[in-house]
Amino acid sequence: MKVVVVIVTYNRKNLLVTCLEAIAQQSYDYERVILVDNASTDGTIEFLEAKKILNHPKLTLLKQTENTGGAGGFSAGMKYAFEHGADYVWMMDDDAVPHQNALEQLMNHATPNHIYGSLAVNGEDTAWTTTLLPGSKTIDSKNLIPIISEVQSLPFLGYLTSKEIFEKLGLPDNSYFIAADDVEYCLRAQRAGFKTYVCGQSYIEHPKSDRYPFNLFGKKLICLKLVPWKRYYDTRNRLLIARNYYGVKALTQTLPASFVRLFAALINEPNKLMQIKAFFTGVYDALMKNTGKRHDYWNL
């Protein structure tokens, strides 16, 4: 099967080189690497040229004319890969460092009828909280993840999808810019009858998310520590997803939970006035269905 690796990068050239080196050492014989540069301004292209990395016969560079965010980058990379003969696409950010057998472990389980993902880890911990199904059990230790398990959603970090799914679903929604575009794609897949699985022995090293538990009236939320401009996208895109997929729960669960996240941020995080601005502009844009890159518009 022709597996094409899609990597999206923006202004992290040193991390990108480490990622590319890890991909080159994969035990599974992938077809090609599609590198999507999101109009980097730090000299990424010149850096790669100087190191002769762009001369690699299995590397194709897609240069974006503007920063389209992770959502736009993955959409462009996936489109190019499948239009040029890929059977599967394996996607990740530039700060991912796959273990040598990560792709091989995925392909041991992969079928064209479902989505599969590597497990993002940081040492012995998971880089992100992983929610296993059934039962919505949340796991933070890599040793507690089964060899294969259905999950609620997967990040675009070692995310393996097939041509068949692409033909049914289309592309990730690039209007999200960053944050929750992967969640939306998983929900879209599940609505179409595809399941999402994590492969517990396919590891990708990745920085651990800065998360903390917050309890209010006996209910526990896992909150992410976010700078204000990222708070905007996290808030807006959660609410956009809720509007499209959760029905009345958007009002009874997602919106109240968003206010709890704001309350947690005001207790635990700096830049409180900007956090408030980011939150309410995110809510406003979700209600008005204003999408795309908007944090500059709001001066966040």
Short note summarizing the structure:
The chain is of the alpha/beta class and 300 residues long.
Order of helices and strands: EHEHEHEEHEEEEEHHEEEHHH
Strand content: 25-35%
Radius of gyration: 19 Å
CATH class (first level) name of the largest domain: Alpha Beta
CATH topology of the largest domain: Spore Coat Polysaccharide Biosynthesis Protein SpsA, Chain A
Number of strands: 13
Mean pLDDT: 95
- Intertermini distance: 44 Å
Which range best describes the helical content: under 10%, 10-25%, 25-40%, 40-55%, 55-70% or over 70%? 25-40%
Shape: globular
Describe the structure.
The chain is an alpha/beta fold and 300 residues long. It has 2 domains: 203 residues, Spore Coat Polysaccharide Biosynthesis Protein SpsA, Chain A (Alpha-Beta Complex), CATH 3.90.550; 78 residues, no CATH class. The protein contains 9 helices and 13 strands. A hairpin with a 2-residue loop joins strand 6 and strand 7. The chain is globular, with a radius of gyration of 19 Å. The chain starts with a strand and ends in a 12-residue tail after the last helix. The mean pLDDT is 95.
